[in-house]
Design brief:
alpha/beta; Metallo-beta-lactamase, Chain A; seven-stranded mixed beta sheet; globular
Amino acid sequence: MHLTWLDSNSWLIEIGKQRILLDPWLVGSLTFNNSDWFFKGSRTQERSIPENIDLILLSQGLEDHAHPPTLKQLDHNIKVVGSPNAAKVVKQLGYTQITVLAPGESFTLNQQVEIKAFPGSPIGPTVLENGYLVKELESGLTLYYEPHGYHSPQLQQVAPVDVVITPIVDLGLPLIGSIIKGTKSALAVAKVLQPQIMLPTAAGGDLVFEGFLNKFLIATGNVAEFRALLENNNLGTQVIEPTPGRRFELQLEKRELAKL
């Protein structure tokens, strides 16, 4: 399994001889509803759009996961798997092969990789976006991804999982509380899934943020503190801080197969 972190929540996952582009924001700036006065993310270094993509995997329909400028540039014939909200975005952009996954549903990519949706981040009082379990069918190696730190109790059914990509830094607003659940949530999922490797997402990378909202965001926690938490809880999970844009291979041991 090879991974390339492309900043924020954007990843290239190479698994089962398939290249999966996850929540890509690769070009232009990031805003919500075109309101750059409210929030704007900019790149200090451009990221090339990866070639030979087999699947675009989208966890949410919000712009930081289904980024319209990036999706406009990608080949619209690439297969897309996404939450119902994400599927609406790519459908409006003219993508031709879209699979909608609700929590509990699965998709098999070219008979090599199985993707199962789990309940993820809440959007409003009634809508849940997706987390995903990605499984290489030949080896049984698994990867779980949820970008806001909302981990379903249903994950107990698939433990252990080999790789977890999730926030380990909390991001919140005064009076409102957490927008992204990091440290405690990441520790809880580590206890349940017993991953060999964890990788942080959602924070860091070659990015600059500005705007009204950014003035009030509070980030707490870091990788060193999280490593100490794992050790204090007798968890042997390795935490890797990836270098943005650099492809790397995960050294994993085969364990009992997780069930999907």
